[in-house]
Amino acid sequence: MQQILVIGYGNPLRGDDGFGGLAAGYVEKLRIPGLEVIVCHQLNPELAAVLYKSSYAIFLDAVAGDEPGTLNATPVARCDLSSAGMHHFEPGSLLALSQAIYGYAPPAMLITAATRSFDNGAEISKDVKQAAVKAAEAIALAVDAGNFDSQILSNVLLNCH
Amino acid sequence: MKRLTIDPVSRIEGHAKISIHLNDEGHVASTQLHVTQTRGFEKFTEGRPFYEMPGITSRICGICPVSHLLASAKACDAILAVRIPATAVKLRELLHCAQFVQSHALSFFYLSSPDLLLGLDSDPAKRNVIGVIEKHPELARLGIELRKFGLQIIEGLAQERVHPSWVVPGGVNAPMPPQLRERILSELPAMTAGAERTINFFKSAITLFQEEIDNFGTAPTMYAGMVDRKGNLQLYDGTLRFRDAQGAIVKEEVAADDYAAYIGEASLRESYLKAPYYKPAGYPQGIYRVGPLGRLNTIDGCGTPKADVELAEFRQRFGHPAHSSFLFHYARLIEMLYALERIGQLLDDPQILNTHVRATAGVNSLDGVGMVEAPRGVLIHHYKVNEDGGIVWANLIVATGHNNLAIGKSIQQVSEHFIDGKKLQEGMLNRVSAVVRAYDPCFSCSTHASGQLAMKIRLVGPDGALLDEICSR
């Protein structure tokens, strides 16, 4: 069976930045076979040791801009490792690290939700909470269909209720 | 008089800068380490309920929150005046050993290995963990997996990797799941082998650094660390022992609540970091070192088989006590092996899965002190409370502080040996930063840059004219 890795990341104490962790938590509750969920504050190098064992990776993150709650799915390309920071990585640099150290990086998708606020506090806005549910549903459907095409996933994200 | 400034010192936890004063001949006249941040935890925790202290004070650090959590919880145990369940003691030590693995792996592989693997004079733009990954992926993988292993144990036990709330006054708030024990045990042999491979690599590479070994903080000092009743290494419990520069034990069996009789704290004009000293010797003669090298110089033995073999070889090669601060790296690796062996011993103890893991009580003492060995050295939390349990006074002696005077001395020695004030070279100044990194100081848990050195060094003449400058970010 293929191993699909879902990584939700962000600071749960900075409002809507908690989107990644919330959405990943919803995915975990679905108990989908062959799917591993990791929730973390930020992407760090140790994740490469899990990433290389996966057949597909999905990153969940919050972004500024756009209408709050708007979801987007984009394929992640490996980027230049030298652009990586020491304390945290972006999805593309984490894939590059996995490739450099383990000789393999899985294909990956980044699902983002536009936020209303990154202010201090653990409260997530209604729009972003709804986006987290949609994202989890879309991931479940994609896993079920075995299809992670970004266009298809984007359409699913738009049509999830 | 001219002054060089290294600001900030890179690849350390927190912020610091170094001033190097040159005389008119361009030779080093004096040096100063400035820790340029202030935290204030002792003050703003006043009035908080004592049982909140573990959660609050663990926020001091993102690398070693577990150490603050444990020192704080032990101080709270003393306020409760309870003896916590034996299983809770073992679980706390297990958590602590896991933290040593991840913290020492971070220090060695992520922060210091660029100097050791790529060279102290190598291109600063490449002299970072990314450079190590590109040139030595095998070793980088070891570092990542050792750190991941330590973090996974912490997360498995405490539910969170950073700032967990599992350790509480009176014990821990949940027993260990049996499946976690099995998972750790299944991965432990590979991790132990990885730590041994790293030590063997370092032992072969260290011969390339003879000049650094001879000049990186070799001035004799006292040493301090916690030991158990047999005089062996003890990271979670035990009493404090001091050895003098010749290796003689000058004081031992110092209990946590007696620390103030032996440790004084001096304030320095140039730094927000206090400078603890051995009180009977006075300030500044009472300079001592803690942390990996301090501990290995203080103990009689490690108490685990593989680490004891490595300790014997270490002492055979460098004597006892070994004074060069460059050897902090070597000592750190031996301790990582010890922590892995100790994890195995604790997991093999049938008591580890017991479910009675917390004692409860109210305020029974108005004063409590907790002491543990943090990865960087002895960590002491001392609280006084009112009858309702509100904090009325707190004093924290954080591990890096103990080394403050010794780091200053090491900077002076390295600067005198390596710096030619007439023409600066980046490698000279990197050695000054590298001796600070050898101590793995944790000035706070703030971030730092990789890639090009975030460092600016200015050479200014007596008339204030800029003579030379190296600036890169």
Helix-strand layout with pairing:
The complex is a heterodimer of chains A (161) and B (473).
Chain A: E1 4-9, H1 19-29, E2 35-40, H2 48-51, E3 56-63, E4 71-76, H3 91-102, E5 108-114, H4 126-145, H5 150-159
Helix pairs in contact in A: 1-4, 4-5
Chain B: E1 2-6, E2 16-22, E3 28-35, H1 41-44, H2 53-57, H3 65-80, H4 86-118, H5 129-135, H6 137-158, E4 167-168, E5 171-172, H7 178-205, H8 210-215, E6 222-227, E7 239-243, E8 249-254, E9 263-266, E10 275-278, E11 288-289, H9 291-298, H10 305-318, H11 328-348, E12 367-374, E13 377-385, E14 391-397, H12 399-402, H13 404-418, H14 426-438, E15 455-460, E16 466-472
Parallel strand pairs in B: 6-11
Antiparallel strand pairs in B: 1-2, 2-3, 4-5, 6-7, 7-8, 9-10, 12-13, 13-14, 15-16
Helix pairs in contact in B: 4-5, 4-6, 4-11, 5-6, 6-7, 7-11, 9-11, 10-11, 13-14
Walkthrough of the structure:
The complex is a heterodimer of chains A (161) and B (473). With 161 residues, chain A is α/β, with parallel strands linked by helices. Helix content of chain A is 35%, strand content 20%. Chain A is built from five helices and five strands. A five-stranded mixed β-sheet of chain A has the order 2-1-3-5-4. In chain A, helix 4 (126-145) packs across helix 5 (150-159). The longest helix of chain A has 20 residues, at 126-145. The radius of gyration of chain A is 15 Å and the shape is globular. Chain B is α+β, with helices and mostly antiparallel strands and 473 residues long. Chain B has a four-stranded mixed β-sheet, with helices on one face. In chain B, helix 4 packs antiparallel against helix 11 and helix 5 crosses helix 6 (137-158). The radius of gyration of chain B is 22 Å and the shape is globular.
